[in-house]
Design brief:
This protein is of the alpha+beta class. It contains 12 helices and 36 strands. The strands form 8 sheets. It has an 8-stranded mixed beta sheet, sandwiched between helices. Helix 2 crosses helix 12. It starts with 10 loop residues before the first helix and ends with a helix.
Length: 680
């Protein structure tokens, strides 16, 4: 089973990785690779890109990469000015300079504002792109690290402000502070200058939970009075299943009477939740309830159903602002935006008119902390061929009807003239209609179209249309891009996910290959012109395509994959996936998992020919251990196949890094595609 490859420091592991990295570079680093790498890097570093600012106090903030700052700069602009690329932005935090001074690679993951002083923040710095996060207190007004301020160790962690001088710190600082999945479970009242292990414990999730965390609201600030914090602790039992408990103000916790399988947003006066089962209301419903933390019953028993979805509908995003609820509904992937005035008991949801051509929609509050701002939203509309536009929605302006006001559009990263984006459907093995987006290049030959088919299909993750210069580069070179909305995601509602959980996982695989076959049946292409790609759970998906459906693909690009379905739970992070996949120690689950586990499905080269394969991983991936990729490559080689393998030295599970490193990863993959599906 080549278990030595699970030990990162084993000399045999290091030799294995180095040899295969050299081989993949020798094959992929062509002049075309260099051109792709340089073009993608230039896109990441463009000065005229779309800006979606976040307001803190009197400043607008933005994170930006440049050629001189490939790790990025956090910058600010007076809030009285428009957040445009040519504005007089001022650098607040230079990530490259900070890393050079410390002699260590940190990746900027955002900043958490202090509600009492919005320009006082906790910088979230990832250790090399991994899940390990350092929280560093920073004064964004003075543009400096706070002397003697919070500076926590790089562990899996998150925090919320409790007061100007305290945070509730959840950090996996030792075995007792972490769940069995390695995520933090213990919340501590950490004062500035104190060590986490010395801090008072406020909350503990169970060791068997995935994690715990705190949501902090301040009813006093929201109502314009004295500070009156409201603390809601969350224990995540499984991914997507949780229990909420509110602090009554005297240190006692009261469990909120809600189903466990929900998504939610919570404010000082309401909770808005999305039902993912029919435990209390119909699956897929969006529910609004009055929330009174100090009341005899924190939740009003009267529930208002804002959305009772029809088949094929889903709630994509929702939030509570100071005085409004905002949510998007998708009807077989076509978005709508609604707002509800919370100050009027008789108010009905209002649909916001959307501009033409928008394939996907998202929004984010302008203010980093709603309690210190107003109900202004940044709304982003885009499509595969439509550059994103930032619209402003000012809900606090009650003297006029709410409308989107366009503020800035992204520049075009590629020439989309003559290209097409089409929503199609394939029919899966069980008769289910499965939607997918096909984005066509300007010109192509019938039956010979090179196709890159992307999918994920798990953990309720919904895919949406997004404009990308990286995808555009592939389209410009004559390839087509397909986004597969297979079961396992929640694009068509919560049941779209649950149908492909555990012993239903095969449905996601059948949906995906049905799309590949539909492309052939419609005359676009043929199997040896189709490449599939996906990462993480999508890496599992592509691994199954290789071993179960090799005749349907010409190439497989498998990224940071889960591939051994009998050992994933032996690594801490993998224990959190058993609700999704099943328990390999359970006989029935193990038998089902072995039925599709890519590592165990490898056949010898004398029995079958696999499509070209490129396996990509990261040495510091602490979510899906790189041994999955290593052992798969080794087993394929032992069976007589010739996969390409590359393990990057950093970047973690998400492939983070500076702009050059990010560009190089994609360019290596594009080189693999060019050699296998794009040449005659």
């Amino acid at each position: 089973m080549d278990l030595f490859l699970e030990t990162d420091t084993d000399p045999a592991t290091l030799e294995f990785v180095a040899a295969r990295n050299a081989a993949s570079r020798a094959s992929f680093e062509t002049p075309e690779f260099a051109a792709d790498r340089d073009a993608i890097r230039a896109m990441l570093e463009r000065e005229d890109r779309l800006i979606v600012p976040s307001r803190r106090g009197d400043w607008l903030f933005d994170f930006h990469r440049t050629r001189d700052n490939p790790l990025g700069i956090w910058r600010r602009l007076p809030a009285t000015q428009q957040a445009t690329p040519d504005a007089a932005w001022e650098t607040v935090f230079d990530v490259d300079a900070f890393c050079a001074a410390e002699g260590k690679r940190w990746i900027f993951n955002g900043a958490k504002s202090c509600p009492w002083e919005p320009t006082r923040v906790l910088l979230m710095l990832s250790d090399g792109g991994s899940d390990l996060v350092r929280l560093l207190e920073f004064d964004a007004e003075a543009k400096q690290v706070v002397p003697g301020g919070f500076d926590t160790p790089a562990v899996r962690a998150h925090a919320s402000w409790l007061s100007p001088d305290e945070i509730c710190y959840f950090g996996s600082i030792d075995a007792a502070s972490a769940t069995q999945s390695g995520w933090p479970r213990v919340g501590r009242r950490l004062r500035r200058g104190k060590r986490p292990e010395e801090a008072e414990i406020l909350y503990e999730a169970a060791m068997t939970d995935v994690t715990g965390y705190l949501i902090t609201e301040d009813a006093g600030l929201l109502e314009g009075g004295a500070s009156r914090p409201v603390h809601v602790f969350v224990a995540v039992h499984e991914i997507g299943k949780m229990a909420l408990s509110v602090d009554d103000g005297n240190g006692a916790l009261r469990r909120l009477e809600l189903p466990v399988d929900i998504d939610f947003d919570i404010g000082a006066n309401y909770i808005l939740w999305h039902a993912k089962s029919d435990a209390a209301v119909a699956t897929g419903s969006l529910v609004l309830q009055r929330f009174t933390p100090s009341g005899a019953e924190p939740l009003d028993p009267d529930r208002r159903i804002l959305v009772s979805p029809l088949p094929g509908q889903s709630i994509r995003q929702f939030t509570l602002l100071r005085e409004w609820a905002v949510y998007t509904v998708e009807d077989r992937l076509r978005p709508s935006l609604f707002v509800l005035d919370l100050t009027r008991p008789d108010a009905e949801p209002v649909a916001i008119r959307l501009p033409d051509g928008i394939e996907s929609l998202s929004f984010t509050p302008l203010y980093s902390d709603l309690m210190l701002g107003d109900d202004t939203l940044n709304v982003i509309g885009q499509g595969f061929l439509k550059p994103p536009t930032r619209y402003e929605l000012r809900l606090q302006d009650r003297d006029r009807s709410p409308d989107l006001v366009a503020l800035q559009s992204s520049p075009a990263f590629f020439d989309a003239e003559g290209m097409q984006s089409t929503l199609l459907e394939a029919v899966s093995e069980d008769g289910t209609r499965v939607p997918y987006r096909l984005v066509l290049p300007k010109s192509w030959t019938e039956g010979e179209l090179p196709v890159l088919l992307y999918g994920y299909g798990g953990f309720s993750v919904s895919l949406g249309a997004s404009y990308s210069g990286v995808t555009g580069r592939f389209l410009e070179q004559g390839g087509a891009y397909v986004q597969a909305h297979i079961r396992g995601g929640s694009e068509l509602g919560p049941d779209w996910h649950t149908q492909a959980k555990r012993h239903g996982r095969h449905r996601a695989f059948q949906d995906f290959v049905a799309i590949a076959r539909d492309l052939v049946q419609r005359g676009f292409t043929k199997p040896n012109r189709i490449a599939c790609t996906g990462g993480s759970n999508g890496g599992l998906l592509t691994g199954v395509m290789l071993t179960r459906y090799p005749e349907d693909f010409g190439a497989v690009w498998c990224r940071v994959p889960v591939l051994d379905m009998t050992r994933f739970h032996l690594f801490p992070a993998g224990k959190a996936w058993m609700d999704e996949y099943g328990d390999p120690d359970n006989a029935d689950d193990r038998a089902y998992l072995l039925g599709y586990s890519p590592l165990h499905g490898i056949r010898p080269a004398t029995d079958c020919t696999y499509p070209a394969l490129y396996i990509e991983s990261s040495s510091n991936d602490d979510r899906v251990h790189p041994s999955h990729a290593r052992r798969f490559a080794k087993a394929l080689e032992d069976a007589g196949h010739q996969p390409f393998f590359h393990e990057f030295g950093s970047g973690g599970h998400g492939g983070a890094g500076n702009s050059g490193e990010i560009a190089e990863r994609t360019a290596l993959g594009y080189s693999f595609l060019r050699q296998n599906i794009m040449r005659p």
